[in-house]
Amino acid sequence: MKLKGTYDLNHYDIKQIKRVRLVRRADGYYAQFAISVDQTFVTQPTGQVIGIDLGLKYFIADNIGNVEPSPQFYRKSEKQLNRANRKKSKKYDLSKNIDKKPQSANYYKARRRYARKHLRVSRQRKEYCIRLAYSVIQSNDLVAYEDLNVKGMVKNRHLAKSISDAGWSTFRQWLEYFGHKYGKVTVAVPPHNTSQNCSNCGQKVKKSLSTRTHVCPHCDFVEDRDVNASINILKLGLTTVGHTGSYAWGDLPSWAVGASLPSYGESGNQESPSL
Ligand SMILES: [Zn+2]
């Protein structure tokens, strides 16, 4: 077989190739090579931490007000997909199915065309998630986000979110993968009340989904709804890392401990070098 693509396999020892997997996709067959490589990336601390909120109208929003709009790949290709699907259906012959005879060659051709269009949309979505996750990891030392897989979390807001964008879980997987690869901290925090609580004074300020601005009657703090939520997520992320010890000390950039978690005494026995 001839090798196509951007990766050169020649400079790997044959022993490093642990597994070869043949995968069938709508546009052909692929060979996946699982190669054992020691990847250690030494990254300089960026001095940045980020809390991200998954949105309904946007893909993610962060604690300083940056918003990444939803790419809506599916919606953009919806017409084409529907057209391809209709063409496929028109060529389907029910009587052949009853007689257990194969469909016409044109039917299978239309079916493959339809499948390829779906494949294209799913690849676009995946590429988008990978690019975004990579850039978030590259520009931050710690990334906090909502753990939307928490059981019993059937609040309207979150349910709507998980339904509205399946891309979120793909994004999260890549975020955690890149975080691991580049030695960054990724923290999933419980999503309770992140949008309700005031990120300035901690008081609960009830608001409906349509309320886009957080206005705190207790401390007069005013902020965009999503930014307020992202700040809460970041704060939760920082306290989680400081408290549970599920991450080794070294995983947390020490400046983050020194700067943001001064009140957590158990971390105080290590020195926090300044940047
Ligand atoms: Zn407040």
How would you concisely characterize the structure shown here?
This protein is α/β, with parallel strands linked by helices and 275 residues long. The chain has helices at 73-90, 94-98, 105-138, 156-164, 167-181, 225-244, 254-260; strands at residues 17-25, 28-35, 49-54, 58-62, 67-69, 142-146, 185-189, 213-215, 222-224.
Describe this structure in words.
It is a single chain. With 275 residues, this protein is of the alpha/beta class. It has one domain. It is built from 7 helices and 9 strands; from the N terminus they run E-E-E-E-E-H-H-H-E-H-H-E-E-E-H-H. Helix 1 packs antiparallel against helix 3 and helix 3 packs across helix 5. The C terminus is likely disordered.
Order of helices and strands: EEEEEHHHEHHEEEHH
Proportion of β residues?
15-25%
- Give the overall form: flat
Which class do the helix and strand fractions yield? alpha/beta
Question: Which structural traits does this protein have?
Answer:
275 residues, alpha/beta, five-stranded mixed beta sheet, 17% strand, disordered C terminus, binds zinc ion
Present the secondary structure layout:
Blueprint: E1 17-25, E2 28-35, E3 49-54, E4 58-62, E5 67-69, H1 73-90, H2 94-98, H3 105-138, E6 142-146, H4 156-164, H5 167-181, E7 185-189, E8 213-215, E9 222-224, H6 225-244, H7 254-260
Parallel strand pairs: 3-6, 6-7
Antiparallel strand pairs: 1-2, 3-4, 4-5, 8-9
Helix pairs in contact: 1-3, 3-5
